[in-house]
Amino acid sequence: MESRAIDTHAHLFLKEFEADLSFLTYRARQVCAAVLLPNLDVHTLPQVKALVASEPFFYYGMIGLHPAYVKADFRQQLALLESELAEAPWVAIGEVGIDLFHHRDTFKWQAEAFAYQIEWAQRLNLPLSIHFREALDETLHLLHPYQVRGVFHCFTGSYEEGKRIIEAGFYLGIGGVLTYKNALALQEAVKRLPLDRFVLETDSPYLAPVPFRGRRNESSYVVYVARALAALHCTSEEAVLNITTQNALELFGLSSFKAT
């Protein structure tokens, strides 16, 4: 394969990958030019930093507090994370946002935490990697006052929802759900939305594409997402990789990271 993907969202620092991380990295390198690692909370940050340090210029880290991890101590967690902002060349603030599917009861805390982290992104001119499960309206409302950019991670919505996100100036993160037979609304949306507003992702270890659905996901499987996207747009896999990789390079500023 001449063109290479960028997996813009993979949690390869989790325990699911401890036993075979070196083999997984080897497989990912056959497919990907880079893999981006969104943090979850203060407890996962050391693992993210260690993985980035182990494979510089391939693994890139994001820093943030995931909405599912917004608990009573969220202000203390944010203070600790903020103290780390200058400690590494982070490519994004993430994974951050709102989750009203599993965590509706903490919405007020989530909204406060998200706003705080949007301010980091604006101040540092970094993109956001945004979690917005069952919370598109709330997420767009919270983003509206700020001048920021980023990606709505794990987009699985309708054409109208995708259009709203794009019109707000953001990218759509497309992953393995696109390959599922029952994802008809998503497939129709992706077919109608422009390729130049997509980035590829796996969300590993979750949401593995067909033919690996139900198994542990990994970054090398991002090619199956690219193939599904190419089929829907009646174009080549190489064209999809060229466009989405360029989108990711520009959004996350990866061209500014150069190996020595």
Spans where pLDDT lies below 50 across 5 or more residues: none
Strand content: 5-15%
Distance between the termini: 25 Å
Helix content: 25-40%
Question: What kind of sheet is the major sheet?
Answer: 8 strands, parallel
User: What do we call the CATH topology?
Assistant: TIM Barrel
Can you describe this structure?
This protein has helices at residues 21-31, 45-54, 74-83, 107-124, 136-143, 159-167, 184-192, 222-232, 237-252; strands spanning 5-7, 32-37, 59-63, 92-97, 128-131, 150-152, 171-174, 198-200. With 260 residues, it is α/β, with parallel strands linked by helices. The protein has one domain (5-256): TIM Barrel. Strands 1-2-3-4-5-6-7-8 form an 8-stranded parallel beta sheet, with helices on both faces. Helix 3 packs parallel to helix 4 (107-124) and helix 8 (222-232) packs across helix 9 (237-252). The mean pLDDT is 96.
How do the helices and strands line up, and which of them pair or pack?
Elements: E1 5-7, H1 21-31, E2 32-37, H2 45-54, E3 59-63, H3 74-83, E4 92-97, H4 107-124, E5 128-131, H5 136-143, E6 150-152, H6 159-167, E7 171-174, H7 184-192, E8 198-200, H8 222-232, H9 237-252
Parallel strand pairs: 1-2, 2-3, 3-4, 4-5, 5-6, 6-7, 7-8
Keywords:
alpha/beta; 13% strand; 8 strands; TIM Barrel; 260 residues; eight-stranded parallel beta sheet
Short précis:
The chain is an alpha/beta fold and 260 residues long.
